[in-house]
Amino acid sequence: MTLDLLDIDSLLTEEELAIRAVVADVMRKTVRPHIAGWYESGEVPARELALEFGKVGLLGMKLQGYGCAGASSVAYGLACLELEAADSGIRSLVSVQGSLAMEAIAHYGSEEQRRRWLPGMATGELIGCFGLTEPDHGSDPASMSTRAVRDGDGWRLSGVKMWITNAPVADVAVIWARTDDGVRGFAVPMETSGVSAREVTGKLSLRASRTGEIVLDDVRLPADAQLPGATGLRAPLSCLTEARAGIAWGALGAARDCLQSTLDYATAREQFGRPIAGFQLTQAKLADMVLEWQKGLLLALHVARAADRGAMTPTMVSMAKLNSTREAIAIARQCRTIMGANGISGEYPVMRHANNLESVLTYEGTAEIHQLVIGQALTGLSAFA
User: Fold this and answer.
1) pLDDT > 80? residue 293
2) Phi then psi dihedrals of residue 40, to 5 deg
3) Which of 166, 188, 214, 307 is disulfide-compatible with 161, CB 3.0–4.6 A?
4) Do 243 and 348 fall into the same domain?
5) CA–CA separation, 94 and 104 (whole Å)
6) Residue 1: is its pLDDT beyond 80?
7) What percent of the chain is predicted at pLDDT more than 70?
8) Which of 84, 103, 327, 364 is catalytic?
9) Which domain-ending residue is among 105, 123, 141?
10) Given this model, what pLDDT does residue 370 score?
């Protein structure tokens, strides 16, 4: 039984469909057999997975050169959808590596920095993270406390970054810090003296993702660690825009996995002498969820097509990210009701997706922040403090 009642697949090219199929196959072989156990244990073999993903061009896949695939925004979105259909934490590994860390180095780094880091990151031999969020500064990065001061011909960095995906396994961190000349970015090797990463444990969401705190204790960096093209907050925010576009697709992947699992369950589960999929209330729930899922796909596809012709705006991305994450978590919760008590079992993916989507709803821009971005575009007035 297909969920694509609008035949959205007909809007995709043969190449796009082939890329989606490749990623789905990689997930089927490398992630799906193990993801329930990884989630339960809170452990995931991130380095091994990065190498597997690098083999099929998933890391930095939109970038040109340096071993990257140079794929379209639509192809990247479809990849994110399949990654997150397996698990949000798996998609986070890929999107932080490519859309944040590699994107920052590719667009704002020097040629020397690009040659040093990007080829290894494209193959998965090197892992990157993106240090913007701080313990006391999430939605307001302009107030960040991390400082970089001149020290002879180099720099000294001090501060703390928090909730940083990939930090515990990263080889390089793109760190954003305040300087006397505004916010600047730095490519910081994690082996540098004064840099330490502590893994965040006890998470009830994104358990199959390596998350950490990065402490920068008077870290001495050479002048060439600075990303020369990154001046002001516009640089990290542009990277976040790219990542959010992928998240808009990814959340819909989690929703699809919930829907497919629930449809399969409802057609097999019998109560009162017949499958529960035959009851009116169950069909009403399924119909509403598939409608929202398909609408979300059309929106994500429209924004990605706009990106491929150079017409995507941050407001478009805010609309897509807000819609996809909000509807995906609603779908996951509704699917759980259809599955009853079985919906909370790790044997099925629904509760795992629902828990993960609690994080996806608020990271890289909370729902409220995206509402305000859209509100400002509508009114011309900023509601930010």
Assistant:
1) yes
2) -65, -40
3) 214
4) yes
5) 14
6) no
7) 100
8) 364
9) 123
10) 93
Amino acid making up residue 106: A
Residue with tokens 């599955």: 339
364 labelled catalytic = yes
Q: What is the pLDDT of residue 165?
A: 96
Contacts for 67 with CB less than 8 Å, ≥ 6 apart = 118, 119, 122, 123
Q: What's the burial of 347, exposed, middle or buried (CB within 10 Å: 0-12/13-18/19+)?
A: exposed
Which residues lie across from 199 on neighbouring strands? 212
pTM of the model: 0.94
Question: Residue 353 is part of which domain span?
Answer: 235-379
Whether residue 139 is predicted with pLDDT greater than 80 in this model: the reply is no
Measured N-to-C along each axis, helices 46-55 and 14-30 cross at an angle, to the nearest 10 degrees, of 150
Residue finishing a domain among 99, 123, 147: 123
Looking at the fold, whether 165 and 75 belong to one and the same domain comes out as no
The CATH number for 146's domain is 2.40.110.10
Would 266 be classed as within a structural domain? yes
Structure tokens at 62: 């939109």
Does 241 share its domain with 201? Answer: no
pLDDT band at 169 (very low <50, low <70, confident <90, very high): very high
CATH of the domain at 276: 1.20.140.10
Q: How many residues are recorded in the chain?
A: 385
Q: What is the DSSP letter of 101?
A: I
- Least confident range of 3-7, 165-169, 223-227, 231-235: 231-235
Q: Which residues of 143-179 are buried (b: 16+ CB within 10 A; e: fewer)?
A: ebebebeeeeeebbbbbbbbbbbbbbbbbbbbbbbbb
